């Protein structure tokens, strides 16, 4: 076999291997539907694939006969008397860095809290509403986000009403339990007031800047 | 706001008052050294480093709330989502979604439109921005998912490729012909948070029914029938619809049009009659359309995973895995949008839903739902 023939054989093997690897279904999606079928039956009833099942009770489940997957309705912490907690937004990662905890947003006005969940159970179990010594933490208006590297850390920007609305802060959720979740807020960055506004006026320096506690990274 | 090392934070310093968020500076902060590596006025990102160099500045009435921004998990890329949109051929600086380096130098345009989108990685670990829809002003825009390779953006025009969902996602009943299903396809979301970990290259697509009486639009499909019997006053009523083909117990329908539109849930159905609680009077000719059918077609009120691969040819069919129903009717309640999010190894998803109830004007509760993948409870 010539060198060029060997090269051609190697390339063929690589192409074949690559095709197989590319077409493999990730185990997460094993058994899921891959058809383009309209399971609503075009809106025509009766439609066996588009039933109108009753809503499950909190913690209860619905097994879909067509998709084959199981959907659980999530319970909420006792502090969430409104009973509603949902994902903040598709772009906001609800799970911590090792997928063991999760937060959801309470649908309460005028301010929304985060509810912490234990994501190691099926379904995730509510732990408590997250409170801090610097007001509320949420990811709707206060940019609360799980850290990528620390599974217990949530970064956020306190609300303006807390008097610390120009700061980056974080909380550690390790001490959040079903009976107590009033966490200490740590300062990361608090100097968002040094530059001039485009209109030319200078923003008023924060009065509490000199009292800024030591930065904790 | 920060990259996957939790070291580099990219955000803005704003003045917030009763009239919105007045942008001042873009900031890049290094948490490890506790130093601001870049702080620059927002308009320094615009052409000519003046506000008018950003098309968003000239948008009527818009002098604040000019943009949103994201730090990609890859520290090299910051996306600024200017709050004005255009098409591929009409994009201007300071409109759509633009990509900047850690010093806020312009790298290129990822999308001409500031629509639903997210950042993450493709199957080969390439940093991407993925958008719902495309912006070529052709009929396939409505069933497209745009994928921009952030390492290959251009300063002069878009470079994204698009993949296409099945035809019935956006139109019934032809392929790229027929009724446009805007109440479904016009408001879908993409989550790339599941691509940040051990399984790069898959987005989670979530859809809903963006219709209802309080929002003011009826479903696009299927075609309406009529009540057949006038409803003289609010209360329980039995009607004789022109067709029973869309009416069953538990089905939610819109009744009537415009300011007279309301929704009902059918509670008793016979071969010729249907009973429900009506909130107001309607003529016998009032239109009846199925709200809980989700506009029908592929991906109606559904969660599904989509493969994201920057090497896939432009306009190639999307590779997808269908996870389940969202049962999400939105009407006039923003919180009733499913907004499905994915965990970091794509083994769990969570979303919000009214479970096939019309939330009307935020009057019906929205609950959290959860599905685990690759587990004993999955199949």
Write a structural description:
The complex is a heterodimer of chains A (217) and B (379). By secondary structure, chain A is mainly beta. Helices cover 10% and strands 22% of the residues of chain A. In chain A, the strands form four sheets. Chain A has a four-stranded antiparallel beta sheet, with no helix packed on it. Chain A has a four-stranded antiparallel beta sheet with strand order 9-10-11-13, with no helix packed on it. Chain A has a three-stranded mixed beta sheet with strand order 8-7-12, with no helix packed on it. In chain A, strand 5 and strand 6 form a beta hairpin. Chain B has three domains: 1-115, no CATH class; 116-141 and 152-215 and 302-379, no CATH class; 225-290. Chain B has one helix and 28 strands. The chains are: A mainly beta (217), B mainly beta (379). The interface between A and B is large, with 86 and 101 residues.
List keywords for this structure.
heterodimer; A: 217 residues; mainly beta; 22% strand; disordered C terminus; B: 379 residues; 3 domains; five-stranded mixed beta sheet; four-stranded antiparallel beta sheet
């Amino acid at each position: 076999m010539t060198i060029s023939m060997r090269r051609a054989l190697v390339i063929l093997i690589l192409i074949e291997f690559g095709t197989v690897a590319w077409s493999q279904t990730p185990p997460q999606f094993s058994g899921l539907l891959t058809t383009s079928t309209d399971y609503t039956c075009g809106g025509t009833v009766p439609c066996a694939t588009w039933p109108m099942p009753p809503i499950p009770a909190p913690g209860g489940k619905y097994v879909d006969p067509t998709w084959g997957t199981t959907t659980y309705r999530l319970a909420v912490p006792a502090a969430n008397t409104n009973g509603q907690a949902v994902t903040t937004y598709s772009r906001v990662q609800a799970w911590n860095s090792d997928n063991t905890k999760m937060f959801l947003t309470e649908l309460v006005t005028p301010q929304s809290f985060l509810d912490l969940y234990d994501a190691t159970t099926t379904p995730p179990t509510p732990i408590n509403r997250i409170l801090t010594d610097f007001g509320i933490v949420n990811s709707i208006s206060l940019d609360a986000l799980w850290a990528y590297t620390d599974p217990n850390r949530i970064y956020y920007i306190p609300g303006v009403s807390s008097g610390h609305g120009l700061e980056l802060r974080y909380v550690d959720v390790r001490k959040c339990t079903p009976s107590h979740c009033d966490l200490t807020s740590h300062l990361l960055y608090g100097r968002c007031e040094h530059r001039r506004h485009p209109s030319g006026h200078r923003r008023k320096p924060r009065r509490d800047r000199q009292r800024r506690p030591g930065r904790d990274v | 706001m920060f990259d996957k090392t939790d070291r580099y934070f990219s955000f803005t310093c704003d003045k917030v008052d009763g009239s919105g968020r007045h942008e001042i500076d873009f900031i890049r902060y290094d948490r490890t050294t506790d130093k601001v590596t870049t702080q620059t006025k927002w308009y320094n990102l615009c052409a000519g480093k003046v506000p008018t160099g950003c098309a968003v500045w000239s948008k009527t009435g818009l002098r604040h709330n000019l943009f949103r921004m994201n730090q990609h998990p890859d520290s090299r890329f910051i996306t600024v989502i200017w709050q004005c949109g255009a098409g591929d051929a009409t994009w201007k600086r300071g409109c759509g979604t633009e990509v900047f380096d850690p010093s806020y130098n312009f790298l290129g345009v990822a999308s001409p439109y500031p629509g639903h989108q997210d950042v993450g990685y493709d199957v080969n670990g390439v940093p991407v921005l993925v958008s719902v829809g495309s912006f070529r002003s052709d009929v396939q825009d409505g069933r497209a998912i745009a994928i921009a390779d952030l390492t290959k953006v251009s300063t002069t025009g878009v470079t994204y490729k698009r993949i296409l969902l099945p035809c019935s996602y956006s139109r019934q009943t032809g392929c790229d012909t027929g009724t446009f299903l805007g109440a479904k396809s016009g408001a879908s979301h993409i989550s790339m948070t599941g691509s940040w970990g051990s399984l790069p290259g898959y987005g989670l697509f979530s859809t809903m029914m963006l219709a209802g009486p309080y929002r003011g639009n009826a479903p696009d499909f299927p075609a309406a029938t009529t009540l057949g019997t006038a409803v003289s006053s609010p209360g329980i009523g039995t009607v004789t619809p022109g067709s029973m083909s869309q009416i069953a117990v538990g089905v939610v329908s819109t009744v009537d049009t415009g300011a007279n539109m309301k929704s009902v849930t059918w509670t008793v159905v016979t071969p010729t009659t249907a009973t429900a609680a009506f909130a107001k009077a309607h003529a016998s000719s009032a239109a009846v359309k199925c709200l809980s059918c989700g506009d029908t077609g592929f991906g109606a009120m559904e969660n599904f995973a989509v493969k994201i691969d920057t090497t896939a040819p432009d306009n190639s069919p999307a590779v997808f895995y269908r996870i389940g129903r969202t049962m999400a009717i939105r009407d006039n309640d923003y919180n009733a949008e499913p907004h499905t999010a994915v965990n970091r190894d794509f083994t769990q998803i969570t979303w919000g839903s009214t479970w096939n109830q019309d939330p009307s004007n935020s009057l019906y509760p929205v609950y959290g739902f959860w599905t685990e993948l690759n587990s004993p409870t999955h199949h």
